[in-house]
Amino acid sequence: MGYKFNFAETDSLFCNILEKYDVYAPKRFPKQGRYSDTDITRYSQIKSINEIEFNQKTDYSAKEVLTPVNETLFYFTENEFKESSAPKKPILLFARPCDINAIEIQSKIYEENGEFSDIYYSRIKNNLKFVLMDCNGGDDTCFCTSMGSNVTDNWSIAIKQLENDYLLSIKDPEFEPYFQNCEKVDFLPNFVEQNKVSLTIKEIPNKEVLNELKHHHFWSEYDKRCISCGACTICCPTCTCFTTKDIIYSENQKVGERKRIFASCQIEGFDTMAGQKEIRNKASERMRYKILHKFHDYKERFKTKHMCVGCGRCIHRCPEAISIISTIDKMNDAIDEIINKNIQE
Predict the structure, then answer these.
(1) pLDDT per position as a tens digit, 115-174
(2) What values do phi and psi take at 42, rounded to 5?
(3) Smaller CB count within 10 Å for the chain: N or C?
(4) 248, part of any domain
């Protein structure tokens, strides 16, 4: 069922939802951006629909709602530990198709990667419902249509902002009573069919080509360009790297809390092992690891789509203007080169 209501009605309509749900959505934070007098847009808890930023892609992704940048896992004393409390309310999350698909990708990693499931992730994910936000195709870094992440049916409510009104489509019967007095209209969400840019990904046909690709010379250019800041992975909606840290409360080293904190495979030292051995000690090696993980390994592991959803945030956030689109184009050329060489031999 579809509904229409004007801006003046929004808070009164959503106040009952806010009693039951914690609502998260894209929100603009003035003068907190990367540069002086610039804003930043990121996912945050809201108390009014008027706080939602409908027109601009967020600088950071919706993964911060399910896996906060800094999250307490449990508290400990000398003799016992106590798991941190789960959210008291279920979550209603306003998100565009690419971010909804990204959460589904993350869910495979946290919940379907072997016999263990991450309880801290699952307790939020299992109490999460989506409000699908209308998307106009994004900007000149978006390539969601190339990745198949421009469409989703995983939503309870769909919403579109007009000049003075909102259009709403309800798929989950739970939400019908909240809007039953609104004007009824025919509305179903539309999905982006074409972006300003596109990406073609060549499949790596076998392990022989994969091993040669790992040592191809084109990766070496990133030793000069990439500064290993990790900005691309922190804003990425599908990256899941984290580290843990124990916070000690006092001189008693056995009392404190353990936190899970965002980390990045692109930062020097992330993969340091016992004995201080670092597996990937060059920027080019870390870049190769990230790209092949997103555009080969994940798909091989889960037999599904690639890990990237084409949101383009990594291009926006990179201080060295490294484009993942250009990187994949270069990898495609390298794959062709290796295959042709092997045929000739």
Answers:
(1) 789 999 999 999 999 999 999 888 899 999 999 999 999 999 999 999 889 999 999 999
(2) -150, 170
(3) C
(4) yes
